[in-house]
Amino acid sequence: MTHAIRFHQTGGPEVLRWETVDVGEPGPGQARVRHAAVGLNFIDTYHRTGLYPLPLPSGIGLEGAGVVEAVGEGVANVKPGDRVAYAGGPVGAYSEARCMPADRLLVLPDAIDFRTGAAMMLQGLTSAYLLRRTYRVQPGDAVLIHAAAGGVGLIACQWAKALGALVIGTTSTEAKAELARAHGADHVIFYNREDVAKRVREITGGEGVAVVYDGVGKDTFMGSLDSLRTCGMMVSFGNASGPVAPFDPLLLSQKGSIFITRPTLMHYTAKRADLEALGGELFDVVTAGKVRIEVNQTYPLRDAAQAHIDLEARKTTGSTILLP
């Protein structure tokens, strides 16, 4: 008997249900994965609330790690017994086992365990495309990373520092600031009591940063734009505080001919070759010790609702995993 977390209506964490599911055999192009660990991410709350709509009823979760139990016709990139991890969909990772497209799976290096694999894939691949594709960070660049003590933040801060950047992070508490500093942040700004753009200008000698990585959304958007140097890049990749309100594109010229993009991991990994390339870069920096994956919270999978409550209350730091 296999169980999974599913929801039949959108809403708060209480809509998440622990249900029996029939996994079955993998079809053509699919693999059946027995999960050892599942990743928790803020996008899961967007699916649960309906901000990012899904057909209902639905499973939930985009990230996991485990062992391939069986493969369907035409699958060549993985085989039964392989240790694998994935991120980015389709939804349904909050499960003890599942069938999914085999071309979304990456074989884990021996040096990376299942818990690390489940904790690093979505946040790590997100950091990979942000820092190496959307805006390719160069030595000497000043970068601003919001929510620096969060899952993406801790990875991105370490990676940006390893690339030779001046790393400025934002956070809300002294404890989170210490965590960010320990993971590569050269400067930390308390967004809840400081003027972020003003402090960025002070730190950068009035120039501003080359790029802002903003997964917070509504609350930080204007401050992010005001933190950029001339022709800088605003990367808005999340909505933790709510979606950004519509704005006049003329604002971009008024603030220094700045650029703005709203990327998603799904587009940057849509092609198998791109997924493998980004995954390879991520595995390399982790196995080399340049990026440490912090699994700071674990919950039983059946208690996913409590994990959502804590995530939305900003009680978590680093990565969180659910254990089947």
UniProtKB/TrEMBL annotation:
<dbReference type="GO" id="GO:0008270">
    <property type="term" value="F:zinc ion binding"/>
</dbReference>
<dbReference type="InterPro" id="IPR020843">
    <property type="entry name" value="ER"/>
</dbReference>
<keyword id="KW-0560">Oxidoreductase</keyword>
<dbReference type="Pfam" id="PF00107">
    <property type="entry name" value="ADH_zinc_N"/>
</dbReference>
<feature type="domain" description="Enoyl reductase (ER)">
    <location>
        <begin position="11"/>
        <end position="322"/>
    </location>
</feature>
<dbReference type="InterPro" id="IPR002364">
    <property type="entry name" value="Quin_OxRdtase/zeta-crystal_CS"/>
</dbReference>
<keyword id="KW-0521">NADP</keyword>
<dbReference type="GO" id="GO:0035925">
    <property type="term" value="F:mRNA 3'-UTR AU-rich region binding"/>
</dbReference>
<dbReference type="GO" id="GO:0003960">
    <property type="term" value="F:quinone reductase (NADPH) activity"/>
</dbReference>
<dbReference type="InterPro" id="IPR013154">
    <property type="entry name" value="ADH-like_N"/>
</dbReference>
<dbReference type="Pfam" id="PF08240">
    <property type="entry name" value="ADH_N"/>
</dbReference>
<dbReference type="InterPro" id="IPR036291">
    <property type="entry name" value="NAD(P)-bd_dom_sf"/>
</dbReference>
<dbReference type="InterPro" id="IPR011032">
    <property type="entry name" value="GroES-like_sf"/>
</dbReference>
<dbReference type="InterPro" id="IPR047618">
    <property type="entry name" value="QOR-like"/>
</dbReference>
<dbReference type="InterPro" id="IPR013149">
    <property type="entry name" value="ADH-like_C"/>
</dbReference>
<protein>
    <submittedName>
        <fullName>Quinone oxidoreductase</fullName>
    </submittedName>
</protein>
<dbReference type="GO" id="GO:0070402">
    <property type="term" value="F:NADPH binding"/>
</dbReference>
<dbReference type="GO" id="GO:0005829">
    <property type="term" value="C:cytosol"/>
</dbReference>
